[in-house]
Amino acid sequence: MKLLVNCKDDFEAQLIEGLLKSAGIPVQRKYRGEGHVLKLYGGLGRDVDIYVPDDRLQEAMQLLEHRDEDWEEQ
Q1: CATH of the domain at 49
Q2: Which phi and psi angles does 25 have, rounded to 5°?
Q3: Which residues pair with 16 in a beta bridge?
Q4: Is residue 73 part of a domain?
Q5: Over 23-56, what HEC string results?
Q6: Is residue 74 part of a domain?
Q7: Per residue of the chain (74 residues), what is the pLDDT tens digit?
Q8: Which residue, 1, 21, 13, is CA-closest to 46?
Q9: pLDDT at position 32, please?
Protein backbone atom coordinates (compact mmCIF):
# COMPACT_ATOMS: atom_id res chain seq x y z
CA MET A 1 0.00 0.00 0.00
CA LYS A 2 1.13 3.53 -0.82
CA LEU A 3 0.24 6.78 0.93
CA LEU A 4 -2.17 8.77 -1.20
CA VAL A 5 -3.07 11.71 1.02
CA ASN A 6 -3.14 12.95 4.62
CA CYS A 7 -6.52 14.26 5.77
CA LYS A 8 -7.07 16.71 8.59
CA ASP A 9 -9.92 14.67 10.11
CA ASP A 10 -12.28 11.71 9.72
CA PHE A 11 -14.86 13.74 7.81
CA GLU A 12 -12.41 14.58 5.00
CA ALA A 13 -11.10 11.00 5.04
CA GLN A 14 -14.62 9.59 4.66
CA LEU A 15 -15.30 11.79 1.64
CA ILE A 16 -12.11 10.64 -0.06
CA GLU A 17 -12.68 7.00 0.88
CA GLY A 18 -16.18 7.13 -0.60
CA LEU A 19 -14.87 8.54 -3.86
CA LEU A 20 -12.15 5.89 -4.12
CA LYS A 21 -14.39 2.99 -3.12
CA SER A 22 -17.00 4.04 -5.68
CA ALA A 23 -14.26 3.65 -8.30
CA GLY A 24 -13.41 0.18 -6.99
CA ILE A 25 -10.14 1.24 -5.35
CA PRO A 26 -9.44 -0.47 -2.00
CA VAL A 27 -8.60 1.94 0.81
CA GLN A 28 -6.78 1.63 4.11
CA ARG A 29 -6.96 4.32 6.80
CA LYS A 30 -4.25 4.94 9.43
CA TYR A 31 -4.05 7.61 12.11
CA ARG A 32 -0.86 9.52 12.85
CA GLY A 33 0.33 10.32 16.34
CA GLU A 34 -2.51 11.13 18.70
CA GLY A 35 -5.12 11.09 15.93
CA HIS A 36 -6.30 7.62 16.94
CA VAL A 37 -6.59 8.60 20.61
CA LEU A 38 -8.85 11.50 19.64
CA LYS A 39 -10.99 9.04 17.67
CA LEU A 40 -11.33 6.73 20.67
CA TYR A 41 -12.16 9.38 23.22
CA GLY A 42 -13.63 12.22 21.19
CA GLY A 43 -15.34 10.42 18.33
CA LEU A 44 -13.55 12.36 15.58
CA GLY A 45 -10.05 11.30 14.55
CA ARG A 46 -7.44 13.74 13.32
CA ASP A 47 -4.41 13.47 11.05
CA VAL A 48 -5.61 10.53 8.94
CA ASP A 49 -3.51 8.89 6.22
CA ILE A 50 -5.28 7.24 3.27
CA TYR A 51 -3.42 4.38 1.59
CA VAL A 52 -4.22 2.64 -1.70
CA PRO A 53 -2.65 -0.36 -3.49
CA ASP A 54 0.61 0.41 -5.30
CA ASP A 55 -0.86 -0.45 -8.69
CA ARG A 56 -3.86 1.88 -8.19
CA LEU A 57 -1.96 4.94 -6.88
CA GLN A 58 -1.93 6.86 -10.19
CA GLU A 59 -5.63 6.21 -10.77
CA ALA A 60 -6.45 7.38 -7.24
CA MET A 61 -4.36 10.53 -7.68
CA GLN A 62 -6.21 11.36 -10.89
CA LEU A 63 -9.57 10.92 -9.16
CA LEU A 64 -8.53 13.34 -6.41
CA GLU A 65 -7.29 15.86 -8.97
CA HIS A 66 -10.62 15.74 -10.81
CA ARG A 67 -12.49 16.04 -7.53
CA ASP A 68 -10.52 19.18 -6.65
CA GLU A 69 -11.23 20.67 -10.08
CA ASP A 70 -14.95 19.93 -9.75
CA TRP A 71 -15.13 21.51 -6.29
CA GLU A 72 -13.29 24.64 -7.47
CA GLU A 73 -15.83 25.12 -10.28
CA GLN A 74 -18.78 25.10 -7.85
Answers
A1: 3.30.70.1530
A2: -100, 120
A3: none
A4: no
A5: CCCCCEEEECCCHHHHHHHHCCCEEEEEEECHHH
A6: no
A7: 999 999 988 899 999 999 999 999 999 999 887 645 555 555 566 789 999 999 999 999 999 988 765 555 55
A8: 13
A9: 82
What is the structure's pLDDT at 54? 98
- Please give the distance of CA 61 from its chain centroid, rounded to a whole number: 11
What is the reported pLDDT for 60?
97
28-53: b (≥16 Cβ within 10 Å) or e: eeebeeebeebbeeeeebbbbbbbbe
Picking from 24, 25, 32, the residue whose alpha carbon sits closest to that of residue 6 is 32
Helix (H) or strand (E) holding 72: helix 57-73
Beta pairing, strands 28-31 & 46-52: antiparallel
6 alpha-carbon distance from chain centroid: 7
Q: Indicate the residue type of 52.
A: V
